[in-house]
Amino acid sequence: MQLAFLPHCPALPFFGFSRYTNELMSKTLFEKIWDRHIVTTLSNETVLLYIDRHLIHEVTSPQAFEGLRLSRRKVRRPKLTFATMDHNVPTDDRTVIKDPISKAQIEALTKNCKEFGITLYDLKSDLQGIVHIIGPELGFTLPGTTIVCGDSHTSTHGAFGTLAFGIGTSEVEHVLATQCLIQKRPKTFKVEFAGALKPYVTAKDMILKMIGVIGTAGGTGYVLEYCGAAVRNLSMEARMTMCNMSIEAGARAGMIAPDETTFKYISTGSRPYAPKGKEFDESVKFWKTLTTDPDAKYDRTLTIDAVEIAPQVTWGTNPGMVLDVTGRIPEADKVPGYNRKDVEQALTYMGLKPGIAITDIQIDTVFIGSCTNARIEDLRAAAQIFKGRKVAPKVRVLVVPGSQQVRKQAESEGLNKIFQSAGCEWRESGCSMCLAMNPDQLKPGERSASTSNRNFEGRQGKGGRTHLVSPEMAAAAAIAGHFVDIRSWK
Amino acid sequence: MEAFKNHRGLMATLDRANVDTDQIIPKQFLKSIKRTGFESNLFHDWRYLADGKPNPNFELNQSRFKNATILVTRNNFGCGSSREHAVWAVQQYGFKAVIAPSQERGNSRVPAFADIFRNNSTKNGLLTVELKESEVEEIFQMVNRYKGLEATVNLEHQRITLHLPEEISFHFEIDSSIKEHLVRGLDEIEQTLQFQNKISSFESRHNAQSFK
Questions:
Q1: A462 reaches B (C-beta below 8 A)
Q2: Interface contact B193-A178, CB threshold 8 A
Q3: Are A13 and A20 in contact (CB under 8 A)?
Q4: In the structure, what pLDDT confidence band is assigned to residue A23 with cuts at 50, 70 and 90?
Q5: Which of A248, A390, B11, B69 sits a CA distance of 20 to 30 A from A32?
């Protein structure tokens, strides 16, 4: 499937003088990838950007295929798109989809992929999973590429030094028909995490902390580049967690320059789409050039001291409403970046009052899953907490692996046994209670500790109350029945 | 796509910041494989009570906002999920334009609309208008004071005019490419397909890491 890999040769005279001088200028990681994907410049503001890889799923693609049919257009490069079903699939018995409307949507994807010649990993496939989990698993996600998907968490793939962002259905149709997108160049924003993380503090805490600092719109119009010692020390799984939530800061994309950790991830496991052998070695040479030049300029920069980061818990109805686990629910007029009315609304919805300690908040449900935190490392971290312990009475815990491969790996390590003996439910892969499009939902008033990415009103079920945390914090809350400071919890 | 001409219509306010696309259209309505039929789903969980009756406390349910076509709201409208259903629902309910404020935070300006939502709006001919915080505040006050207040959105001149006894106007900025796209009601795919040769020649020199 993989053809000869030829790194795009940059600075040759026949590209013209302006191109040549451009190549000599210092560039950020983002600029290097952006520039090598410009098909043509359309206006002062916009370019036609080439898309190397396109992921689709059942929810945001049917209208795009319908559009192609109505205008009698074909898919330009069917092999550059691949599909899976994840958003509305059941995670208990996946052989029967009881909801007829969900079933129709699943069937539409199957039919569309067949008609247009697109590879589909369906519910029968042992490679199926959440689209942003299986892309990297299959080696579809590679450094230096552009990746889009009709899903805002496409930013996940940026962990590989990839320019990856979410698009709407009209743009899905545009990519299918042209393999390109009309894009305005975003600004660049460097976020440096200096120093080392303390034990039990994770990538989830880093990104929640950052969102708390810059706000849920602080990254709008920017591509974020995460760097610094704390980022370098993260595994690929953890880097994906960080990049995944870039959109929660308003940024369509977040990126991390590839390094040995990245190359090792790509060369490990089966990864059918990744280059192998000599091609891999050639690729690495190119991938090593994907770093920000020392004197390249960003439009904005921010430094966060990683040592200072504590486990984070959201208390409100967007991810920017977040506190250290040692904190207390704030007074409505004392939340920077939010007006009093919005905080009051959030607290009313969440059923919380100012002054309550985060660790006094009791929970009903724990969800360990989603494209943010359902990779093997997340499950290992949660299992370590559950091992030899029992879930608190009346607390329901769903553990939903991100893919069938993660599920299989977890089972081979016996993690499912640990979860089940602690009293958790062990499920099939899918988006599940992150967006609750399938039957996995909170009831009105129910409160969850969730490893997912959004605590919006009704996100996990109408009237449900969501607190976003890391897998370790979610597991500990499941056992204690309320939030605990994992750093000092016994 | 329908071109955006001058539009005059009734204004309605939604006094909330950070309205996410899960609120604009909750997930249970994303199972449809059609592009139409979302008007009754707009702001579903705020708009209806548990028994399905309209929630009298929800702003847009006020009789004075019936048939409104211009939505005035607060900053970071449309954040969250990329679902284009949100734009379809806003349009199918009857809105032609949404007005929201950018925010000054230190030295930086935070845009009024989330990126993906604004992109999706443009593709569908829904105009997003970004004004200053003080200007949007003034519009909120005027809409509250004058029942039935209408405004005209003039895209060509980039101006919003409130039809008060003494008219007030606000200038707004918009990318020239977005403006042209809206005014002409362009089919973007058709436009891009005109560059087929350039795309092919790009592909022939860019086959890096791709598979056929």
A1: yes
A2: yes
A3: yes
A4: low
A5: A248
Asked whether the beta carbons of residue A217 and residue B15 sit closer than 8 angstroms, the reply is: no
Strand partners, B13: B72
Note the pLDDT tens digit of each residue in A386-406: 999 999 999 999 999 999 999
At residue A31 the predicted structure's pLDDT band, cuts being 50, 70 and 90, is: very high
- What pLDDT sits at residue B5? 82
Distance from CA of B33 to the nearest CA of A (A): 5
In DSSP terms, A328 is beta-bridged to A357
**b or e along A88-100 (b: 16 or more beta carbons within 10 Å of the residue's beta carbon)?**
bbbbeebeebebe
Neighbouring CB atoms inside 10 A of A443's CB total 12
Closest A-chain CA to B30: A59
pLDDT confidence band for B212 (50 / 70 / 90): very low
Residue A337 in tokens: 């970046």
Report helix angle A100-116 to A62-70, nearest 10.
50
Give residues 146 to 165 of A whose Cβ lies within 8 Å of B: 150-152
Whether the CB-CB separation of B73 and B156 falls below 8 Å is answered with no
Per-residue model confidence (pLDDT) at position A15: 35
* Distant-in-sequence, close-in-space partners of A281: CB < 8 Å, separation ≥ 6: none
Average pLDDT, whole number, for chain A?
94
Written as six digits, the tokens of B130 are 């970004």
A32 Cβ under 8 Å from any chain B Cβ? no
Full-model pTM: 0.95
Chain A interface test: which of B20, B31, B203 (most A C-beta within 10 Å):
B31
CB contact under 8 A, A174 and B188: yes
Q: What per-residue string of b and e applies to B184-212 under the rule 16 or more CB within 10 Å gives b?
A: eeeebbebbbebeeebeebbeebebbbbe
CB-nearest partner of B115 from A173, A250, A275: A250
Query: What residue of A is the nearest CA neighbor of B194?
Result: A178
* Contact between A406 and A415 (Cβ < 8 Å): no
Residue A249 pLDDT > 80:
yes
Q: Kind of pairing, strands B150-154 and B7-14?
A: antiparallel
Check whether A100 has a pLDDT greater than 90: yes
Residue whose C-alpha is closest to residue A231's, from A243, A249, A215, A218? A243
The C-alpha of B147 sits at a distance from chain A's nearest C-alpha, in angstroms, of 23
Closest CA–CA distance from residue B195 to any residue of chain A (Å): 8
Bridge partners (DSSP) of residue B109 are B104
Q: Give φ, ψ of A148 to 5 degrees.
A: -130, 160
What count of other Cβ atoms lies within 10 Å of the Cβ of residue A278? 10
